[in-house]
Write a structure and sequence with these properties.
Structural class: alpha/beta
CATH architecture of the largest domain: 3-Layer(aba) Sandwich
Strand order of the largest sheet: 2-1-3-4-5
Number of helices: 11
Largest sheet: 5 strands, parallel
Number of strands: 5
CATH topology of the largest domain: Rossmann fold
CATH class of the largest domain: Alpha Beta
Helix content: 25-40%
Radius of gyration: 23 Å
């Protein structure tokens, strides 16, 4: 059945089981690729195959012309885990300054509402697609993120560092989506038709630069290992049998390896359907997942105008070479490490070098 977000207000016993399927390819026909991805086809196929008494939510992360993108993670956790707020407050819904697809698609809430996630995507350059990586980077906050931004005045680094060392922090820092299940289905062409008989790229002039024996991954599914292990680290169960890679399009030109060509690939749909059935069986047996203490569902970002004014003043003072006393920027400045006292925040290092 179609998802009804109002069911998130019901008890676990009353609400339907819910799954979120993500198509992770960057391609959409409404941008310069001009063609929809195989992962979109597989997402829709899976949605039809799963039990229809479940709530089946799905989303395509493909790039649509003039639509916002998932903004990158600012790595707040590397300053202090308490600065990494759950759900992410580096960005916010409907922002004009930094529009963010993660918030505008309400993905934090939808991930929270789902009992299980199915992630489908291609391998791009020995790795997941950039959009999938962006989404998971923005989920660092699900693993120990700070659910109380009021304790750090929205985004005050010094207050976050203090909170991280307080007894209160142990109670706040939780895996906020723990207990759910995630399945990963990735596919790739193993170089398509670009390799020569030695396994090297045909167009490569310096053949000794590339040793095919040293290529990563005996099992190509390991291209998605960062996403799988981030999930497991964060309390999301990823059973080994639900982490699958299937090759498609090897030896073919890219233009001959489109969604409409899947049916020509021996057993590809059979393997995908088997993965879908294994996913459905596992999550059915596991059952519904109770919500965690600090939910993304129903969360409304608080107003932070005054906090932004204070942080803006902090930026101005740092730009003038006056960082907060006893702060990390003050220590870095004293040691001559950052060379970052400037009021031209947006000026790149390359521009400065060329002044």
């Amino acid at each position: 059945m179609k998802p009804n977000d109002e069911n998130g207000k019901l008890s676990v016993e009353q609400r339907p089981f819910r799954v979120l399927i993500i198509s992770g390819s960057n391609r959409r026909q409404y941008n310069c690729p001009g063609v929809d991805s195989k992962s979109r086809t597989l997402m829709l196929r899976m949605a039809e195959r799963l039990p229809q008494e479940w709530e089946i939510d799905y989303e395509d992360l493909g790039n649509v012309y003039a639509r916002e993108h998932i903004q990158s993670c600012n790595a707040c956790a590397s300053t202090s885990m308490a600065l990494c707020v759950w759900p992410c407050n580096c960005y916010e819904p409907n922002s004009k300054a930094e529009p963010d697809l993660m918030w505008n698609l309400d993905l934090y809430s939808r991930l929270d509402l789902a009992d299980a996630w199915a992630i489908i995507g291609p391998i791009n350059w020995y790795a997941p697609s950039s959009n999938l990586k962006l989404m998971f980077d923005r989920l660092v906050c699900m693993s120990g993120g700070n659910p109380r931004e009021d304790l750090i005045d929205h985004k005050d680094p010094e207050k976050a560092m203090q909170l991280e060392h307080s007894p209160e922090w142990e109670e706040l820092s939780k895996n906020h989506l723990e207990g759910r299940t995630a399945g990963f289905f990735c596919y790739g062409d193993n170089g398509a038709d670009e390799l020569d008989s030695t396994g090297r790229p045909k167009h490569l002039k310096h053949k000794h630069y590339f040793d095919p024996e040293e290529e990563p991954f005996e099992n190509e599914r390991n291209a998605y290992a960062p996403l799988v292990w981030q999930s497991r680290y964060s309390g999301i169960e990823v059973p080994d049998r639900l982490w699958r890679y299937v090759e498609i399009g090897h030896g073919k030109k890219y233009s001959d390896n489109q969604a409409e060509d899947i049916e020509k690939e021996p057993n590809f749909y059979d393997k995908f359907d088997a993965w879908t059935d294994a996913f459905a069986d596992f999550v059915h047996q596991k059952g519904k997942v109770p919500p965690n203490k600090y939910r993304a569902y129903g969360y409304k970002p608080p107003s932070h105008l005054w906090e932004d004014i204070k942080l803006g003043w902090r930026n101005v003072r740092m730009g003038l070479g006056i960082p907060p006393k006893d702060s990390s920027p003050a220590e870095q400045q004293a040691q001559g490490l950052n060379q970052d006292a400037t009021l031209s925040f947006h000026k790149s290092e390359g521009e400065k070098l060329r002044d």
